[in-house]
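$ ./design --mode recover --in tokens.txt
reading tokens...
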């Protein structure tokens, strides 16, 4: 029996904690309450091949195509192949996916060749998954610590030996044989995000400070349709999958001119086209027109979105609603092998915090919940096994030579001109300079600006100061990686490299200079 510390309570963390509890002593840590995670807010659903008119081969092909030549094919095969078994596990855990005539109901989202998106409660898939897994975790995991932040990982002789935690009573270091990072993405790097406020990239920052190899950090996915209101509430891609269309202020559909799949083109294409249209109309949001779907259908299929629209005084059955792109999902993260193992012995990463290589340069819609459940399950199955000397080596053999990038922690010396980082300023800089369309000169200026900011002094840090320190570290890592990738690929679009080069597959990994 090993001591396992699971950090994060979205789908990846809950699955890891529940499954590891069968044989190991588990402590589950979360910064807020168990139910507060990106998973909880997922709408569209979870993609998997669950019907005979679809095939794993086609799911693999769609995923590789979205990944724009940077996916790790082995990880993609595993994702799609293991998917159906893991969906059955979720059903056994009590997740009630929607059904039609007794069969699992299947929705369509962008760049999928078949309807294969399972959902629950219409557009409340995340709530359905999170509620079932939280109940299971409460029943099976002995030690659950809510409102607890992990300040740093502890290593002994280069191997994980525990973590330092902070809660309302102060700091404590606890021992662990393994740490499983499952703390999600970093949407709060950006001024507009569909993510909840807890997503501040803490796990990736912990991994970076512990010396883990990170990869693909420059690839941040922007969702094209967030409601253009404070908080950027997500309007699921499933709405376009059901037939809603994007129009400009003149009432014209603009996606048909941009891509043969129109509104169901890959997410980066739709997001950039929407942003371009917004620029043409003086910054005004574009409109999502779902009126043809009718009020009865919209209320039944999308009850959460319908209620949120009503709360803003919008009647989307009668009028198009204003939408805008927002930061949504990070393809990059802690580089892992196909068992969730990082380059630091004893440290696993699963879910959005990880970079398994399954998403490449752009994630296919609704593949992220699937990746979490597939790779969490695999990670638990190798607890106790010998740690390979270099877990990433198989991936690099397939994806090509490795370019390493070192970010300049040393540049963050406190000088008289240093300024303690302000979250809104950081988010604004990232949105303006490291967003949907980037240029080398903006990225360079952003790196220089970030290096003038420092985290708050450690001894007086509140929770949010620790988060800000993590955001600052990651902002520099993302910006440096974006500067180093001199091409446009998938979600990373450089105005100074407009031609997309589809064949190069060279992951950039990031290390932090001590
Ligand atoms: C959505 O419902 O549009 C989000 C699905 C996803 O990001 O995978």
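writing sequence...
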């Amino acid at each position: 029996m090993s001591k396992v510390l699971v950090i994060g309570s979205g789908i990846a963390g809950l699955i890891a904690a529940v499954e590891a509890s069968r044989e190991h002593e588990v402590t589950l840590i979360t910064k807020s309450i168990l139910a507060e995670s990106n998973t909880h807010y997922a709408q569209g659903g979870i993609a998997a091949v669950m019907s005979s008119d679809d095939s794993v081969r086609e799911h693999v092909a769609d995923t590789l195509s979205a990944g724009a030549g940077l996916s790790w094919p082995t990880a993609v095969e595993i994702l799609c192949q293991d998917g159906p078994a893991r969906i059955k596990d979720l059903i056994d855990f009590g997740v009630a996916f929607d059904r039609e005539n007794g069969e699992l109901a299947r929705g369509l989202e962008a760049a999928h060749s078949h309807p294969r998106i399972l959902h629950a409660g219409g557009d409340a898939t995340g709530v359905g998954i999170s509620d079932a897994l939280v109940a299971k975790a409460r029943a099976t995991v002995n030690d659950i610590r809510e409102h607890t932040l992990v300040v740093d990982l502890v290593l002994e002789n280069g191997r994980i030996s525990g973590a330092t935690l902070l809660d309302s009573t102060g700091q404590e270091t606890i021992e662990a044989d393994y740490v499983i990072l499952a703390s999600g993405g970093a949407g709060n790097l950006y001024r507009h995000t569909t993510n909840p406020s807890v997503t501040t990239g803490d796990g990736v920052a912990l991994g970076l400070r512990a010396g883990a190899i990170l990869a693909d950090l420059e690839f941040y996915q922007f969702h094209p349709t967030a409601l253009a209101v404070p908080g950027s509430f997500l309007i699921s891609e499933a709405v376009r999958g059901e037939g809603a269309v994007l129009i400009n202020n003149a009432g014209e559909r603009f996606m048909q001119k941009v891509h043969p799949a129109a509104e169901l083109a890959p997410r980066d294409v739709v997001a950039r086209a929407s942003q371009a249209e917004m620029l043409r109309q003086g910054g005004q949001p574009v409109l999502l027109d779902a009126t043809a779907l009718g009020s009865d259908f919209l209320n039944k299929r999308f009850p959460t979105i319908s209620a949120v629209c009503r709360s803003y005084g919008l009647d989307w059955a009668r009028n198009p609603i204003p939408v805008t792109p927002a930061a949504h999902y990070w393809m990059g993260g802690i580089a892992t092998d196909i068992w969730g193992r990082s380059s630091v012995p004893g440290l696993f990463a699963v879910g959005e915090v990880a970079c398994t290589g399954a998403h490449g340069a752009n994630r296919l819609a609704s593949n992220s919940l699937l990746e979490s459940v597939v790779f969490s399950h695999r990670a638990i199955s190798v607890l106790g096994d010998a740690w390979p000397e270099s877990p990433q080596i198989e991936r690099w053999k397939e994806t090509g030579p490795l370019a390493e990038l070192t970010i300049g922690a040393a540049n963050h010396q406190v000088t008289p001109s240093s300024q303690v980082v302000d979250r809104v300023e950081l988010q604004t800089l990232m949105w303006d300079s490291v967003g949907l369309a980037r240029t080398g000169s903006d990225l360079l200026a952003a790196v220089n600006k970030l290096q003038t900011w420092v985290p708050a002094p450690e001894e007086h840090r509140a929770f949010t100061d620790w988060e800000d320190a993590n955001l600052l570290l990651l902002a520099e890592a993302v910006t440096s990686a974006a500067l180093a990738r001199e091409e446009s690929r998938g979600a990373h679009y450089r105005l100074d490299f407009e031609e997309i080069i589809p064949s190069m597959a060279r992951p950039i990994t990031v290390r932090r200079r001590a």
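exit 0
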